[in-house]
Amino acid sequence: MVYEVKLDVFEGPLDLLLHLINKMEIDIFDIPIKILTEQYIDYLHSMQQLELNIAAEYLVMASTLLLIKSKMILPVHEEMMIDEVYDDPRETLVQQLVEYQQFKQAASQLSFKKQQREQLFSKAPTEVEVQTHYTEPLKMEVNLLVQAFERVLNKQLLHSPSEKLVHREEISIDVVIQELQEKLLVESRIKFNELVYQHGSRAYMITLFLAMLELLKQNQINVEEHNKEIYISK
Amino acid sequence: MQYFEQIEALLYVHGDEGLLLADLAELLNLSQAATRQQMDLFMIAYDKRQPSALQVKQYGDLYKLMTQAAYQEIIEKAVYRKNINRLSPAALETLSIIAYKQPITRLEVDEIRGVASDGPINTLLTKGLIVSKKRSDKIGRPRLFTTTTEFLNCFDLTSLEELPQLTYEDNLSQQLDLFLNDDKS
């Protein structure tokens, strides 16, 4: 994999050139191309020494600089001076640099505006909640159910032996759901506690509770609390 | 002012989302032009209500009720600020170029920056700061990018006209002209 690394904090070859131009206090409109090219290529070399891969654009710029430099060295024919317009080989580069500098400036001004904007706050929009549709009213509030469950849980703790062999019991909710549904075919009302004492373990109790919630959600059973006992019915 | 309280209530409820001129026009059952007039009046009237911690800001066609800058400090003590989206220098540069030169193609942006701008442009698209709605007529029909209302919101600009002047714009272009026309005979 090839990693491209940004040279220092430069955004590209133009950024690097601007940095060099500022550092050497060069007049952007009369760039001493030889010196600038030397500095630029020196910079690339130091990156290579650090064994960093140089992004392609930097190399393209290096060859552009060399091209400009060689053009500057070429003697200018007299005919060119009379008939045609003499193009300064640095022209395109200078235009690019000037334009880029403008936008760097603009970017920093925009950044300041952004900071100003971040001083202002607004609240989140008001949401009107959509009521979900219940087909049948619950005969019991869920918190009461949870409270009742907690009571049973505590009772169970009192009954459990002081020394325990910890073993994992695998009880699936589906199995318990099925058991419950089968029982309800026979009996019209079942006491939660009874079921739990029949089976005995906490794991079963918890699974039973989950099974009840699931069946409640599916509207397949009704759950009521009476005298601190939980009753399950169809 | 006839609709003052109604507009105020709507602005409050819309909060961060802001109220679009078109939506307000529908709610008040007025034409967009008339609505704009009402909003202009509203903003003047609202400004006059001092002292107030609130102000109404306009970003393009979007109006938002916001707190004033003076209260930033106390608010930040109380409220946890959500992750502020920071823009990388590359993204900022790219965004500036698009803002000033829109509509503009990716290639044109690349040429100005001297580097590839795919990454920053994708970031800006994701953040909803730029969009591409049209294509250029040139070969390949490349996409043209423009800034969005969200851009105005992010940089506290009422409209594109409020973009800060490009520095030395006149000065530099003059110098550039001189430079380019030098030695030509």
Could you characterize what this model shows?
The complex is a heterodimer of chains A (234) and B (185). Helix content of chain A is 57%, strand content 6%. Chain A has helices at 13-23, 33-49, 56-73, 78-82, 91-117, 142-159, 173-186, 192-199, 202-217; strands at 189-191, 222-226, 229-233. Chain A has a three-stranded antiparallel sheet. The mean pLDDT of chain A is 80. Chain B is an alpha+beta fold. In chain B, helix 2 (21-28) packs across helix 3 (32-48). The longest helix of chain B is centred in the first third of the chain and has 17 residues, at 32-48. The interface between A and B is large, with 44 and 55 residues.
List keywords for this structure.
heterodimer; A: 234 residues; mainly alpha; 3-stranded antiparallel β-sheet; 9 helices; 3 strands; 6% strand; rod-shaped; B: 185 residues; alpha+beta; 50% helix; 15% strand
TL;DR of this structure?
The complex is a heterodimer of chains A (234) and B (185). Chain A has 234 residues and is mostly helical.
Instruction: Work out the helicity level of chain B.
Output: 40-55%
The spatial strand order of the largest sheet of chain A comes to 1-3-2
- Radius of gyration of chain A (Å): 41 Å
Shape of chain A: rod-shaped
Question: What structural class do helix, strand and pairing data of chain A support?
Answer: mainly alpha
Order of helices and strands of chain B: HEHHEEHHEHHEEHH
What is the topological layout?
The complex is a heterodimer of chains A (234) and B (185).
Chain A: H1 13-23, H2 33-49, H3 56-73, H4 78-82, H5 91-117, H6 142-159, H7 173-186, E1 189-191, H8 192-199, H9 202-217, E2 222-226, E3 229-233
Helix pairs in contact in A: 1-5, 2-3, 7-9
Chain B: H1 4-14, E1 19-20, H2 21-28, H3 32-48, E2 54-59, E3 62-67, H4 72-78, H5 89-101, E4 104-105, H6 106-113, H7 118-126, E5 130-135, E6 143-147, H8 149-154, H9 169-181
Antiparallel strand pairs in B: 1-3, 2-3, 4-6, 5-6
